[in-house]
Amino acid sequence: MAITPTSHPISAAPGWAIAPDRAALSNFSSQNHALVTVDAMLETPDRVIDHASLQDFARITPQYPGLRAAMDPQVCAAWVAVLSPLLSRWFDEGGTCWEMQGWYSLVTTPPANLAPIQRLPHVDGTDPRQIAMMLYLHRTGHGGTAFFRHRSTGLEAITDADFPLYREAVQRDVVRTGLPPAAYPTDGAPHFERTHAVPGHFNSAVFYRGNILHSGVIDNAAPLSSDPREGRLTINAFFRPVAD
Fold it and tell me: Tell me, which fold does domain 23-241 have in CATH?
């Protein structure tokens, strides 16, 4: 369910306050993609992890290689009220009203069990106005998020117009060299190259356009626990402009 801000912003539940004002704006790759990072995003991250440990995680979509649980709608409403003016400043024209969907997420699928599509960088959609957020709440050996360029097309972000060309090019890649090995993407070889990576420090958040090719930075040799206190726990969210 998408959450939109109300005319009277809702206060987040105790322990859920965020501080996105400590944001750093940057750009990466020759295509100058906007990237926003926020350190110390949550005022009390360990309380949020405790809350996550009480949730019923489940496999929600076949694309995500792990388990998810939906965030409390009241928290989403409070967050989108705070973040809307900042998202407009960072990524869009001023005055845009945004809606939000958010989940606790745990990567749990062993590399050997990954589906072919999970072995490649991906996009969250083809709309460049959809903004993705990753909030890293783990202290594991796994990392943050990496971004990629598809070598044969030069594409780093996929739009509706690009998608047919991109899909056909990836299919040709597979015909020529076979499927990638059963592992999470690292440097992207042979068909992709990494253009940038964010380290994913504990309690840091990153915002980027969801149509940029990306992947979680997963250590293929490290454990992937389903315990929120031990595994690669993140909060991931999508923000979209509210339809007129």
Answer: Jelly Rolls (2.60.120)
